[in-house]
Amino acid sequence: MTASLRIAHVGKECVACGCCARVCPRAAIQIAWGISACVDPELCVGCRKCAQVCPAAVIDIVEREAVL
Amino acid sequence: MKTRKWVNYLWIAELSYLFLGLFNILFAWLGMVFFSIPLLVAIFGGSKAYCNRYCGRGQLLRLLGEKLKLSRNVPPPKFLRSTWFRYGFLTFFMAMFGLMLFSTYQVFTGAPLSQTVTLLWVFKLPWQWADISFVAPWVGQFAFGFFSVMLTSTVLGIVTMGLFRPQSWCVYCPMGTMTQGVCKLKNGKKARIHGRESQADCKLAEDTGQ
Ligand code: SF4
Ligand code: SF4
Ligand code: SF4
User: Fold this and answer.
1) In this predicted complex, what is the ipTM?
2) Which top CATH class is A6-66?
3) One digit per residue, pLDDT tens: chain B, 210 residues?
4) Is residue A39 lining ligand 1, measured as CB closer than 6 Å?
5) Measured between alpha carbons, how far is A54 from A47 in angstroms, rounded to an integer?
6) Of A34, B72, B90, B96, which one has the greatest count of Cβ atoms within 10 A?
7) How far apart are CA B72 and CA A28, in angstroms?
8) Cβ of A33 and B171 within 8 Å?
9) DSSP assignment, residue B9?
């Protein structure tokens, strides 16, 4: 599968509530260590669904090259 | 997943708790379960599994905000999401909790019982219909105090659900802040070593049960 050009990036002020993981259609998000959401770049397709529900508004959809 | 289905109905437990409390204030004691489980999971399991999967309040807010579309669904203001507000609110909440424990202690040592539920730490709602004559007064006092805490946080949760995103309460929920704080203390070093940006790191966190 061709990787998407954009990807979700989680900011430092994530509260680890898990709302994003629940809605991700690709199951690309884990709540790592109970501290923060963690996006699997291999799975994320940059669909923005997680960013739309994040109550802390810490998810940005960015250019893939910017984070990898 | 089939085995997870019951988990989706925990919002009923949250609603039942509030109704039972209206019916008899002593049911407020059941709220100790909602208080202790997330902390125990964070302390011994090092995860926020309670928030992520089992919290009835989070489910209730989603039900109201997402399914019933009662939320404006806009990001909360910046101050509400800031670290100082989250930890400040936790401190305030714990101070109020401490005061509640102190008044329970005062009743235990002979002070008169105050049969009121206090909403948002200010509004005193008379609660005279509760029959608590068959328990020690301090048991009743704790129930009034604890139910006040639960009712206040539910009201704040519902208001911020309506104004902002469905689970906006989770940003400043004292329990959420506390469990994340415990996880930071417990796993912070591991998280710093392994990071959280690559597939391998996500996988590693998953493999260790996070
Ligand atoms: S952008 Fe889409 S695929 Fe990527 S993590 Fe968010 S919800 Fe999942
Ligand atoms: S929804 Fe936002 S705050 Fe919650 S875990 Fe995901 S990135 Fe973090
Ligand atoms: S942050 Fe609070 S309300 Fe939200 S899921 Fe966690 S314990 Fe429940």
Assistant:
1) 0.90
2) alpha beta
3) 445 688 888 999 999 999 898 888 888 899 899 889 999 999 999 999 999 999 999 999 999 999 999 999 999 999 999 999 999 999 999 999 999 999 999 988 988 888 888 888 877 777 777 777 788 889 989 999 999 999 999 999 999 999 999 999 999 999 999 999 999 999 888 777 766 544 455 555 555 444
4) yes
5) 14
6) A34
7) 27
8) no
9) G
CB A35 within 8 A of CB B180: yes
- Picking from A40, A57, A67, the nearest residue to B202 by CB comes out as A40
Which is the closest atom of ligand 1 to the Cα of A23?
7
Atom of ligand 2 nearest to the CA of A29: 6
B1 assigned to some structural domain = no
Asked if residues B41 and B50 have their Cβ atoms less than 8 Å apart, the reply is yes
What is this structure's pTM? Answer: 0.89
Whole domain around residue B153: which residue ranges? Answer: 6-199
Total domains, chain B:
1
**B71 interface with A at CB cutoff 8 Å:** no
Distance A29 CA to ligand 1 centre (A): 7
Flag if B210 and A31 touch (Cβ within 8 Å): yes
Number of neighbours of residue B102 by Cβ within 10 angstroms: 11
- Domain-embedded: residue B209: no
